[in-house]
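[step 3/7] fold_predict: job queued, chain A
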Amino acid sequence: MAEVSKRLPENVPGDFFVDSTCIDCDTCRQIAPATFGETGDSSFVQLQPRSEAERRAACRALVACPTASIGAVDKSGVAAAVREFPFELEPRLYYCGFNSRKSFGGNSYFLEHPSGNWLIDSPRFVEHLARAFETMGGIRYIFLTHRDDVADAGLYAARFGAERVIHRLELSAQPDAERVIEGFDPLDLAPGFLAVPTPGHTPGHCVLLAEGRYMFTGDHIWWSRHRGRLHASRDVCWYSWAEQMKSVRKLSDYPFEWILPGHGERVHFSRHEAPIQMERLMRAVA
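[step 4/7] structure written:
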């Protein structure tokens, strides 16, 4: 739990605060951008919630924080925020919350599907989420984009008898995974679900394209609120920037509406806007 004694001096006075254990993962700023800002080293409370909607968002950020670095003097609303997860982004698509420190606060997602539900990357294992997934029909597949964001995937796989999917070059992070992607050609995993190897950030990084609408991009590309466009970063490319640029170009061949990253901000486009945004990205990284 966040400690008042460790409250960062940048916080404005009031109920919510961020303490010095913050790892600057950006989770709270994505969930409650009106409340939380950034110093360059951490998040902080830039403005106390001014409405019930802003307070609910701040409470969701408190719950999702991977390091429990957000505190509130008045904890009313926190229990209700727990119950909001998994948080619906649109029908059948959910943001899991409960981000994990093991993944440096990476986001994970849950997609309901008639032939079996999907978990994309993994949140912390918490009983609340596990029970919520049970009521929604369980988990059939766990798609792991790369080694950095597996978190508690093994615990969810054991709970639900789910099939974990990961690339051979990332297998050290889940050596007992049930399905291993080989090579670098796109691979149909199930009807409407395509794994696209996108090496660059790591050697075996993969993107999941679901139903021609959802692009789960791991740490490959994301929406940058500062740039106002899609972004890929050389600074957080651990394997090969040249390969990552090739992978960006590869993804431009596929239709999508949602970009759903592990790190960075998610975004929803119209069918018309999506290829325009990909073209902007390719020009930026060329």
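[step 5/7] annotate
Residues 257 and 272 are 9 Å apart (CA to CA).
Residues 4-82 form a domain with the Alpha-Beta Plaits fold (CATH 3.30.70.20).
exit 0
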